[in-house]
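Regression test case RT-17, inverse folding.

Input:
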């Protein structure tokens, strides 16, 4: 079983009389790309500021690298890199010089500059002034700055904000490579759910400062499959409709060009396909309305909004 590189236990936080986090529970497995999702005002930025030691922890416990943040702040931060939206760069200096200044602050070996430049694909542009960098290049340099101390954990808040599709893809591929080839745990907060869907292995969905879902993407999709509708097309839809009905499948009223069946589990798809083929029918199409991450996210957060005001201690059921 993987150890957790981030854990929060009963984390609550208020700005004056306004409570922002309510008993927030997070478990980020070491080695994961962890998507951190929530609507605007859900408490994501506050959580990240607490994880980086920028806000105090008045209630609850925060563990990073297995250590209590209150007691080991300096040591924890030395093992943690971060990029919060846009990097702060000295625009009159080159990319290399920006890295050199930061390297001296974190006391990293000088050889790390060449290593991180190669990692983020900026070796050829290292001597250019950063005022000449595109937004995507600036973001990659910001990640290079976060990597100088060779941290085990990288916290990225909206790293693709404002980028064009090409820049978004470059950052996504870099995140995957940092995780796969360098073993970095990535804590990734983003509004681009399609990007989280393409790279995250685990995720948490929060709203109003409480955890609504936490777990793997695979488990989230499997739980959403429970009442899916399967559409199929054969060379004889009338016969297919009767055959499936006779075998106790939940078949919806027949349409002209397809047959719609309600299935409870994806294994039923293979079974009904085999039934149709064994009875001489040619199956032209099988398509499911499986929800994507955006639809599941809206389902979970909207369900929470419609629920009573009591906070949930268990993940929302789909």
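Golden output:
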């Amino acid at each position: 079983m993987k150890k957790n590189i981030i854990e929060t236990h009963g984390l609550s936080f208020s700005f004056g009389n306004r409570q922002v986090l309510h008993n927030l529970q997070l478990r980020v497995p070491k080695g994961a790309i962890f998507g951190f999702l929530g609507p605007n005002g859900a408490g994501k930025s506050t959580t990240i500021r607490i994880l980086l030691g920028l806000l105090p922890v008045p209630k609850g416990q925060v563990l990073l690298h297995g250590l209590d943040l209150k007691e080991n702040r300096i040591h924890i931060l030395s093992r943690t890199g971060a990029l919060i939206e846009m990097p702060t760069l000295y625009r009159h200096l080159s990319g290399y010089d920006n890295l050199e200044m930061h390297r001296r602050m974190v006391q990293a070996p000088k050889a790390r500059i060449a290593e991180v430049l190669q990692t983020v694909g900026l070796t050829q542009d290292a001597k250019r002034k950063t005022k000449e960098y595109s937004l995507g290049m600036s973001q990659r340099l910001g990640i290079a700055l976060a990597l100088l101390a060779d941290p085990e954990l990288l916290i990225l808040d909206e790293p693709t904000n404002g980028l064009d599709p090409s820049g978004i893809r470059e950052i996504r591929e870099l995140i995957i490579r940092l995780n796969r080839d360098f073993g970095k745990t990535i804590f990734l907060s983003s509004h681009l759910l399609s990007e989280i869907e393409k790279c995250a292995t685990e995720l948490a969905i929060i709203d109003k400062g409480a955890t609504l879902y936490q777990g793997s993407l695979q488990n989230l999709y499997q739980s959403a499959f429970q009442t899916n509708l399967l559409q199929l097309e054969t060379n004889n839809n009338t016969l297919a409709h009767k055959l499936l009905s006779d075998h106790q499948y939940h078949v919806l009223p027949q349409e002209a060009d397809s047959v719609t069946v309600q299935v409870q589990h994806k294994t039923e798809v293979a079974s009904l396909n085999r039934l149709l083929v064994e009875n001489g029918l040619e199956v032209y199409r099988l398509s499911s309305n499986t929800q994507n991450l955006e639809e599941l996210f809206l389902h979970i957060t909207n369900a929470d909004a419609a629920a009573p005001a009591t906070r949930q201690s268990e993940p929302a059921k789909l």
